[in-house]
């Protein structure tokens, strides 16, 4: 099996996993997660400087409080706010925003799992599609970071451009196209059988998603 086919197989398993997660969790839960994860990520990127400023002001206020500013015991405590250095520097900005996004995402998964219930939270094709959407978005966020970590450990400069999410999605589509083309070439003599097999599997999968699991 060529390297491109192996990559395609991994991507397919990854997408199947998130499609299954979406089906199990239901449409409403996955929709809330998609809105929070995608919306929260871009809001943090857009207003990241404001978030960092708020955190730094919070740390300075803690220094002011510990210095006796709230009790009035130390009249010079106000100077601690002026002289205190920023805890979150420019180098730590992306780390803070990423941790906030991950925390928000985990909290959303937990809350939706506990709160969202009932017949409106259907397990159907829409739930699977939303699960796939979430999986693809996570893939576009995490892959550039993981690539950067592993390449730096190997002493190789990461070749992911600034628009990492767009680059990863475009590259993934190119790899899938190449891998499927190779697979199609290897199965060239069995193409009619392959078409029938894939159509059958697709119809079975669609039929299964139309059934909502029984509530106990």
Give an account of the 3D structure.
- The chain has helices at residues 3-25, 27-46, 48-66, 78-83, 93-115, 125-153, 164-186, 191-209.
- Mean pLDDT is 72; it is low at 156-162 and 209-216.
- The protein contains 8 helices and no strands.
- Helix 1 (3-25) crosses helix 6 and helix 1 (3-25) packs across helix 7 (164-186).
- The longest helix is centred in the middle third of the chain and has 29 residues, at 125-153.
- The protein has one domain (3-209).
- It has 216 residues and is an all-alpha fold.
Strand content: under 5%
How many individual helices? 8
pLDDT < 50 stretches? 156-162, 209-216
Tell me the span between the first and last alpha carbons. Answer: 45 Å
Task: Summarize this entry quickly.
Helix content is 75%, strand content 0%.
Which structural traits does this protein have?
216 residues; mainly alpha; 8 helices; disordered C terminus
Structural topology:
Blueprint: H1 3-25, H2 27-46, H3 48-66, H4 78-83, H5 93-115, H6 125-153, H7 164-186, H8 191-209
Helix pairs in contact: 1-6, 1-7, 2-5, 2-6, 3-5, 6-7
């Amino acid at each position: 099996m060529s390297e491109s086919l192996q990559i395609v197989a991994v991507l397919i398993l990854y997408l199947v996993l998130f499609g299954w997660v979406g089906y199990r969790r239901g449409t409403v839960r996955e929709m809330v997660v998609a809105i929070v994860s995608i919306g929260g990520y871009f809001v943090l990127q857009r207003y990241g400087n404001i978030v960092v400023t708020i955190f730094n002001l919070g740390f300075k206020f803690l220094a002011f409080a510990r210095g006796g500013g709230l009790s009035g015991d130390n009249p010079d405590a106000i100077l601690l706010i002026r002289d205190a250095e920023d805890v979150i520097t420019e180098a730590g900005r992306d780390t803070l925003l990423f941790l906030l996004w991950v925390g928000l995402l985990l909290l959303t998964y937990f809350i939706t799992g506990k709160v969202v219930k009932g017949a409106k939270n259907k397990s159907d094709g829409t739930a699977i599609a939303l699960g796939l959407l979430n999986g693809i978005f996570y893939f576009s966020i995490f892959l550039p970071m993981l690539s950067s970590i592993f390449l730096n450990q190997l002493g190789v400069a990461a070749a992911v451009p600034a628009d990492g999410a767009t680059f990863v999605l475009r590259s993934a589509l190119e790899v899938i196209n190449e891998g499927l083309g190779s697979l199609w070439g290897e199965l060239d003599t069995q193409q009619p059988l392959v078409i029938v097999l894939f159509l059958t599997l697709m119809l079975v999968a669609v039929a299964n998603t139309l059934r909502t699991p029984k509530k106990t």
